[in-house]
Amino acid sequence: MTSEYRICTRCIMDTTDPDIVFDENGVCNHCHDHDRLMKQKVVTGKAGEEYLQKLVEQMKRDGRGKPYDCLIGVSGGVDSTYVAFLVKKMGLRPLAVHMDNGWDSELAVKNIEETLKRLGIDLHTEVLDWEEFKSLQVAFLKSSTPDSEIPSDHAIWAVLGDLADKLKVKYIVSGFNVRTETHLPRAWSQGHFDWKYIRSVNQLFGRGKLKTFPHIGFFTYYRRLLTHRRVDILNYIDFNKAEAMKILEQELGWRYYGGKHYESIYTRFYQGYILPVKFGYDKRRSHLSSLICSGETTRPAALSELDKPTYQPSMQEEDREYVVKKLGLTDDEFESILNASKKTFWDYPSYGRIIEGPALKFLYNIGRNWYRARQKRAHQAEA
What we know:
Shape: globular
Largest sheet: 5 strands, parallel
Order of helices and strands: HHEHEHEHHEHHEHHHHHHHH
């Protein structure tokens, strides 16, 4: 982190991201990344409609003779629910996949049940072994990195990939989109697909081997990059989160839960309490910055939002008591975790440390640039 506090002149990202850099006008690298990705990956208006129509026709052709055209992950949140709404509207036959890691809020469960019922979409729910997953979550808290949410992210993609292989479905449609999710500092969370990292943290701080936890091995990850196709469908429409929420409320009975990814009690507490208290990271800063660049809010409005608590302090206290008890910790143990010296992804064994290390970094960069160029050519050819 630079010694002098600075904040971007366009968005509200600041030097709490230790890797942030600013140009001569004080605009941060995240804003430049946003603009670059908007040009590379977002196709809207008439061109977006035509691109999406061709893609949907291809998905239907590839789905012939199979039980489903595509898989979608559902959490009960706005993005994944809107994806379910869109794919059904386009005439696709999706299978919705939900991973129950033990932290679903009651509202999230109701959202999933109600919306999928109204849309007529089949649901597959993968329930994690709670004792095993609890041990892994505590291990990540004890590792003292800001990456405690990556086991859940890793597991849902592993479940989606395993089901895609089993059902021979090529397409996984996601709710990720450039407009609202580009200002994500790597230092705030990384290692999502790094099984060696997750396994290493568990070996160092967990209470036993991970026997049933869904995971993606090193070679499986790269094979699936070539055999599966991830479709970030919201990049091909004029997506507006506020408008999407209105549609979901009016047409599907969906209800808002108070914050990005707050459909999970643990995520709400982790992002709203642990990250800001222990690490000084406020995820609202990155989410609001993306919304500024996409024109969905203003910089003054975003700064005003940051002046408010991450969520209601009374609910934070309730969540703290609930989370500590559910994880089998004492108050003293949790305080010790909060006060432990901060670590990073790079302090533990991982595939990332190997392939981005001095010996292999050159080859890694060649491979990454080749894959990105391949994706870009495919995108341009289809658009």
